[in-house]
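Lab notebook, page 48
Experiment: co-folding of the full assembly
Goal: obtain a model of how the components sit together before planning crosslinking
Operator: M.T.
Materials (sequences as entered):
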Amino acid sequence: MRIKIDYAKCTGCKLCQVACSLQHTGAVNPQRSRIRVFVGEDVCLPVIAGPYTEAACNSKENMVINGQEVDGCVVCRASCPVKSAFKEPDTGIPLKCDFCGDPPDPQCVKWCDPDALILVDG
Amino acid sequence: MFGWIGKILRIDLTTGNRSVEDLSPDLCRNFIGGRGAGLKMLVDEVDPRIDPLSPQNKLIFATGPLTGTGVPAGGRFVVVSKSPLSNCIANPCCGGYFGPNLKYAGYDFLILEGQAPRPMYLYIRDDRVELRNAEHLWGKWSTDTEDALRKEMGEADALDEWQLRDLSVVSIGPAGENRVRFACIMADGGRAAGRSGLGAVMGSKNLKAIAVSGTGQVDVADVPGYQQAVMDFLEEGRVNRVLYNRRMYGTWALPGRANKSGTQATRNFQEGYSKGFEWYEDPNHVRDHIRIRDEACFGCPFACSKRSRIKDPDYPRSTKGPEHESMALLGSNCGFSDLDDICRANYLCNELGMDTITAGATISCAMELFESGYLPEEELGYAMGFGNTQAMMALLKKTAIRQDFGEVLAEGGKFVAEKYGHPELFMGIKGMGMPAWHPQGVPIIGLQYATNNVGGSHTKATLPFYDGRRDPEEHIKWTKHDQDYVALVDSAILCWIIYHGPLWGEKLQVWLNVITGLDFSDGELRLIGEKIWNMERLFNLKAGLTAKDDALPRRMTHEPRVKDQVVPMDRMLPEYYALRGWDEEGIPKEKKLTELGLSQGRLP
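Observation: model returned without errors.
Model output:
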């Protein structure tokens, strides 16, 4: 199972961040969410937290999403030493998406009304 | 506390002193937050008779218990102050991310007082609160200000892309700096706390911008109950037709409807139907032509606001809207109907930081004065009749910097009309321009505008399409009901557009109780709404307003476009006062004040 992102549908409401933090921390705190939305001018980019890497990478490339060039670092899923996202704000402990348990029942997908996030097989 | 953070951040701009105070649970219970609690603070601390642009005025950025919790369409904030445009209470609402960020930083309210000695901006990141020099930002347009601030903070505070993007900025444009009386406070790249001219108040305090981000949390009383309530709500929302229109078109479905029914403000409200606006009737035309993407406020699944851009290198940035009201006031009401021109005017207003509605009302008033020959061409040096887009764009820019005729326009439409001897040609109430719906087609809207505490605004009562609201017998009852209800919506804070009373009125109570854990009863909430409305009335009366100010422009009541179709204010106003428990001068009676627990608030 994986969560498929359709950038064209994301409106930047950040309800996924609310849902995630509510599920994992019992309170609403978008900064402690395992999914983050980067709100750009022409496109919004939801990014789901992947594994922690101990070093910053040295092959940074920009990407083109919906005709917009975006910073590759922004859409990278890793929690790494050079970026603030996907870490507990107080302790710096890395965060990683766990699909809200087993079997997978991701809250962010449930709360995403425009269907920018959907759960798919494989 | 659940819902509320429980802290107030107070900053004295004169001295730079700051303090953090506790929010009293009594205030929360009695006024909820936002517009209600902000009003209570203003009333306690500010004399209603002050000059709104003096250092004695205060600017209160207020959030409610629902702000930042992710309650659908609950991401807004309210700014409470005294208006330099109408001299009344001012409480414009604004969406975006600023309100939630203020709460994550750890504050429900931000109170700004005094006057900074030189241009400053305020930086808030959790408990780090700094006033910084903004002399280099003075004069910048609003999105340029945001960009410059982000760049500066990226360097000075070593914030990465994510931290900068999560930062929310409110700022003023040149209009606010120059104390244009209908200047807005702009937020998040094109949103505005628009009516009432609070940008001028912020400008008078020498405060260019506020940047906020935070890493804190908002607690929810009943987490499983809340999660379930959201699921139920989203399910209902998916099959709702009104909301389908909001999602697809925002307010772009409304102009066609208004034009067809003859209620579209046209040529300074001389008419209700605008020729050349037929393209309005197909909202897909607008959507295909200018929309870039749907842009949600924090926590809103409906994303009714649309980011737009036109193909004109002189207008390179994207902006928000134009919404229906802006389209009508800057477009048909000034006599032109080209979509690109409307977008240009909207873009300028947003970037310069001016209220699109009052700007449109002011310029259309000047246009009619010009066409009627009361405003001589020699004085202007150029023509400015209806439909003159070139004059329109030039005047918007001049108004923001108070250059030649802009100096007159910057004082607002009422001042312009009086200066040239024809006060009846200004289409506004209490100095504030009327929004797009022509009251002659829908009298209940006339009553709502006229009795509105902030002036000619459409956002303090419900649109009149539901239930019995179009029935003349029911106008008075629904006006009071809706005004009290919206006072609550603005205090919680929910979005007025989504939580129209008839649509989802009962949800307000559900959200409040599940989030705060307090058991607000229906009767208690209604009383709070009515109390807020009456307190605002008392503030206005103390500021010097009288029953004479609860009047529509003469055109609405004496000059029918269609036979006999005038707004019967002579009949409606006394009935409204009686239903409110006010005397014939519009002053709340002792009995009503006692009932609302406001007997301390009576007039001296």
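Interpretation: The mean pLDDT of chain A is 90.
Next step: discuss with group before ordering constructs.
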